[in-house]
Input
Amino acid sequence: MAGARDQLARLLALVPWLQAHPGVTKTEAAAAFDISVAQLERDLRLAFTCELPGRPEACLDIDYLDSDRITVIDPQTIDRPLRLVPEEAVALIVGLRSLAGVPGLQDRAALDSALAKLEDAAAAAGGVPTGTAGPTPAAAGAQPDAVAAVRSALELGRRLHLSYWVPSRDELTERDVDPLRAVSVEGVGYLEGWCHASEAVRTFRLDRVVRAEVLDAPSTPPADAAPQPDAGAFHPAPDDLLVTVDLTPRARWVPEYYPCESVTERPDGGLRVTVRTADARFVQRLVLRLGGDGAVVQPAEVAAGVVAEARNALAAYGVSC
Output
C-alpha cells in the first residue's frame, strides 16, 4: 500500500513538473524525483492510462515512447494546484509558528504573510489551528458545551474554570486557566493557557475537559506566558521521576506510543526503555496493562507499587498470591 501511495503522490507532482519542463530528458526527470529511469517509465505508463472520473474518453497525453525526451501534450486537469487536507495544513501552520519563534530570523515579514494566508485559508475550510481570537477547532470526543465555553473565553478575554481529567492519575482535577489559544493537532483539539494551580503554561486536551465554565474574572496571564511551539507534545520536567522498564518482544510497540528517554535492545528481542513521568502511577498502570510483557526494573518503590496494585486487583476476584 505504501508503494502505491508514494506512486500516486509522485504522479500528482510529476505531470505538472513535466509540463513546466517541456522536452526534459528521462534521466533529468528521474534525477529530479530521486527515482530510476525504469521507475519513471512505469509512472509514465500508468499516467498515460489514467482517465478522468466520468469521462473515459479524456486521458492524459504524454509523448515519451519514441525518444529520450518527455513532453506533456494534454495534462487534462491534473496540472491544477494541489489542495492541502486539514492534517497537512495543521502540520504547516505548526511548523511555521515554530519557525517564527526562532531568534534572529531573517525576512520575518514573508513568513508572517505566508502564515496569515495559510491560517485564513485553513479557517475558511474549518477546523485547523487558530489564534487566540479565532474560532475554536472542533475536537473529536470533546463535550460541545466545553468547546463552546473555550471559544467564548478566548473571544471575551475571560478566565476559565475547568474540570479536567488527568489519565495518568485517573483523577478529576479543578483548576482556573487563563486561555492563550486553541489549536488542533492531528485531529485532537487542545487548549493552551496559564494554569493558576500549576503557575505555568499548560496544554489541555479538549476531549478530557469534563466541564468548562467562563468566569467573570478577566484572563490575565503573565506577560512572559507564551504557547508552546509544538502543542500537544509531551514536555517532561527535569526533576520528573525516571523509570526503567523491561519489555518483551510482544511489547516493542510501547516506545511508538509513549515518549521514552532511551530505548535499548535486549538479548531476548525485547527492549529496555526509560520513561520520565511526574506521577509513578502512570507507569504502574501501563505495566499492569502489559501483563507479563512489562516489568519495572527501577526504582524499587515503583516496582513494589506495581506488585501491590496487581495483588489488590487479584484480591477483588478472590485470588491471593
Observations:
- Confidence is low (pLDDT under 50) at residues 53-58, 126-140.
- The longest strand covers residues 171-185.
